[in-house]
Design goal:
- This protein has helices at residues 5-17, 20-27, 31-45, 61-89, 101-118, 131-139, 187-191, 203-215, 229-238, 247-250, 284-299, and strands at residues 50-53, 56-59, 93-99, 122-128, 145-149, 159-166, 169-174, 194-198, 221-226, 243-246, 258-260, 271-277.
- By secondary structure, the chain is an alpha/beta fold.
- A 5-stranded mixed beta sheet has the order 4-3-5-12-6, sandwiched between helices. The protein has a 3-stranded antiparallel beta sheet with strand order 10-7-11. It has a two-stranded antiparallel ribbon with strand order 1-2.
Length: 314
């Protein structure tokens, strides 16, 4: 037997209110309309829901049992309404994001922690990977947003890029390294150094090599090679090896052990932003997180983390 859930919900209000008139006032109905609905429900059941005591209608055992079901319907409806309202604001739902290990570190964790505290009903998933892995995750719908370098967003793959900062590459060494005493660095100074190189095929390795050639550095003496960011930081901090790293996302890790040299070149330019699948409706939860991240970036005192003039939300 299929019953009208609206009538069950109204029955629960009648039981709560204690009279048809009070229930009708709560429901925004007239008393005759509510009475008709209750009669319709009784006819559908083939049984009475109330017993008459003078002018009063008292719910019987069946009426009370169905009123509990009606209350559950009302509660579910109220919860659904709240969830829908919060979803429109982006405060509930799923946040599925991906980022390279450097970006997923301290660059994102502060804003992500704040977002989780402000939106406790939201489910958050942060996945890390190399650029080609992140691109695959995005294309397959395993993540909704990727925070990474612009080169990851190929328009031919229907990917959109919204800039956040210029995470330009810099040359990193330990505090007290002999090169930090040079007022001006020449290409020959870099040729004389022992380098810690990133793994072959990585975007950072490719960009470093292109920038070095464009800067007039004819050869780079690679003493060590690794794909571990932690190893890069520890080795460079304890030796005279130099390496390259993105300045903005790496700056929280410098502490008093590491420092970027003043050497720069236009090819070190490295826009970092939000990458999403093109042609899709904007996800409100993702947009809310990007807003939180932008707030953190605006508060940043790191002069290397300069931002585009008019960043947009995805």
């Amino acid at each position: 037997m299929k019953l009208d859930p609206r009538h069950l919900a109204q029955l629960s209000v009648v039981v709560e209110a204690g009279s048809f008139q009070s229930a009708a006032d709560r429901l925004g109905l007239t008393q005759p309309a509510l009475s008709r609905n209750m009669r319709t429900l009784e006819e559908r059941l083939g049984a009475a829901l109330f017993r008459r005591e003078g002018r009063r209608s008292i719910p019987n055992a069946l009426g009370l049992r169905l009123a509990r079901s009606g209350l559950a319907i009302r509660v579910a409806g109220d919860q659904a309404s709240v969830a829908a309202d919060e979803s429109v604001r982006g405060s509930v739902g799923e946040l599925r994001i991906g980022a390279p290990p450097i970006v997923a570190g301290r660059f994102l964790t502060g804003s992500l922690s704040a977002f989780i505290q402000q939106n406790p009903s939201c489910s958050v998933e942060l996945r890390t990977g190399l650029v080609h892995e992140l691109r695959t995750m995005l294309e397959r719908g395993q993540v909704d947003l990727v925070f990474g370098p612009q080169i990851l967003a190929d328009p031919a793959d229907n990917l959109e890029f919204v800039p956040l900062i210029d995470d330009r590459v810099g040359i990193l060494c330990r505090v007290g390294h002999p090169l930090t005493q040079r007022a001006t660095l020449m290409p020959s100074d870099l040729e004389e150094q022992a380098w810690l190189a990133h793994s072959r095929g990585s975007l950072l390795r490719q960009q470093t090599e292109a920038a070095m050639i464009a800067s007039g550095v004819r050869s780079v003496n690679i003493a060590c090679e690794t794909d571990s960011i932690r190893s890069v930081l520890e080795i460079v901090a304890e030796t005279d090896l130099v390496t390259t790293m993105p300045r903005a996302t790496m700056s929280p890790y410098l502490e008093d052990r590491l420092v970027f040299l003043t050497f720069d070149h236009p090819q070190f330019h490295r826009p970092l932003g939000v990458i999403r699948r093109g042609g899709e409706a904007h996800d409100m939860t993702g947009a809310l997180f990007v807003k939180t991240l932008n707030t953190f970036l605006q508060r940043s005192e790191d002069p290397l983390s300069f931002r585009p003039d008019s960043p947009k939300e995805p």
